[in-house]
Amino acid sequence: MKQYSCSSDHLAPAVSSFIEWRAFAFWVILVLEANGLSDAELQSALRSRCPGFLEPLLEYEALYPVQPRFVGLQLLDWIDRRWFNRADFEGIADSIKSLAARDDRLRLLRIHVLRSRHEWRSTGPIVPPDFDSWFREAISPTVYSNVPIAQDRPLAQ
User: Fold this and answer.
1) Rounded (10°) angle between helices 131-138 and 8-35
2) How far apart are CA 52 and CA 71, in angstroms?
3) What is the pLDDT of residues 94-112, one digit of tens each?
4) How far apart are CA 140 and CA 100, in angstroms?
5) Contact at 8 Å (CB) between 115 and 137?
6) What are the b/e assignments for 103-126, b being 16+ CB within 10 Å?
7) Which of 135, 116, 109, 136 has the alpha carbon at shortest distance from 32?
8) SS3 letters for the chain?
9) What is the reported pTM?
C-alpha cells in the first residue's frame, strides 16, 4: 500500500466530501425511522446519489422488515466502497476520518441528527426536507451556536 504525506489543506475537499456522505447516511436513517422505505423523497435521493443501492433493498423489504440502522450501516459500507476506496488504497483514509472527527461540521451534524430525530418522532410521519436543505441547516454555525458541547451525545440511542 502506498503511503502519502498530505497537509490538512490538501485533504480539505476529501474531508468535506466525507462529512457530506456521512450526513447523507444519517438523513437516510432518519427518514427511514420516520416514514419507512416507501418515502418518495428518500427513494429519489437514493436513486440519484447511490445508483444500484435501492433496488436490492426494495427486494429485501418485500420479504423482511427493513431496519433503519441496518440500512444505514449497509449504506455507509456502500459509500465507503464506492467513494473512499481510493483513499484507503492511497493510505489517507485514516487521515481523512481523523480530520473529519475534529471538524466542527461533524459536531453540528450530530446535534442536528439528534434534534431532527426528536422532532420527527414527535410528529409521526413527516414530509422530510430534501437532503441538501437539511444538510445546509445542519452545518450552519448560526443554527446551533448556543448549544454547548456537553449536548453532543453519541448518535446510537
Assistant:
1) 120
2) 14
3) 888 889 999 999 999 999 9
4) 16
5) no
6) bebbbbbbbbbbbbbeebeeeeeb
7) 116
8) CCCCCCCHHHHHHHHHHHHHHHHHHHHHHHHHHHHCCCCHHHHHHHHHHCCCCHHHHHHHHHHCCCCHHHHHHHHHHHHHHHHCHHHHHHCCHHHHHHHHHCCHHHHHHHHHHHHHHHHHHHHCCCCCCCHHHHHHHHCCCCCCCCCCHHHCCCCCC
9) 0.82
Cell of 16: 468535506
Cell digits for 45?
Answer: 435521493
- Cell representation of residue 101: 472527527
The set of cell numbers assigned to 40 is: 418518495
